[in-house]
Specification:
Blueprint lengths: L12 H14 L2 E2 H11 L8 H13 L3 E3 L6 E4 L1 H9 L1 H27 L6 H21 L1
Antiparallel strand pairs: 1-3, 2-3
Length: about 140
């Protein structure tokens, strides 16, 4: 889960597993597509590392939740076991994806507001404001 105490731009591996599985349940995907989808959802604020995503996908395949094409780039497809797992964990998966979407919407609004005032988008300058956005998004999603 994206939390106040987590380093900027980090998502718990267990949450990323659910997000990846939910995305693959919608359509077969390559690891790169999962990374890009999460980036787009969060307005480029969070980019899961390939060093995190690919081991998760390998593990999900070993657990029988996914199958992978034999040739690179591997295309991952959900199995019946994977569908059952995501169905059992649908509420949590939807919650994590909802938080990522809410974060992305807030980041987009923040970027638009900064652009409208002519403020530069320096990475160092944005870190504190984004952490504040994240904290508000997490607080808001917990109250729902």
């Amino acid at each position: 889960m994206l939390t106040q105490g987590a380093p900027q731009g980090k998502l718990a591996a267990s949450d990323l597993r659910l997000v990846a599985l939910a995305l693959i349940a919608e359509a077969p995907r390559h690891g790169y597509e999962i990374i890009k989808t999460v980036e787009e959802t969060t307005a480029d604020w969070y980019s899961p590392s390939p060093n995190m995503v690919y081991p998760i996908l390998t593990n999900l395949a070993q657990e029988g939740y996914l199958t992978a094409s034999p040739d690179p780039p591997k295309l991952y497809t959900i199995t019946d076991e994977g569908r059952a797992h995501i169905t059992e964990n649908r509420e949590l998966a939807d919650s994590v994806r909802g938080r990522l979407t809410a974060l992305g919407e807030r980041v987009r609004r923040w970027k638009q507001a900064r652009a409208a005032t002519g403020q530069r988008m320096d990475e160092d300058d944005s870190a504190e404001s984004l952490v504040e956005i994240l904290a508000r998004a997490a607080d808001h999603s917990q109250r729902k």
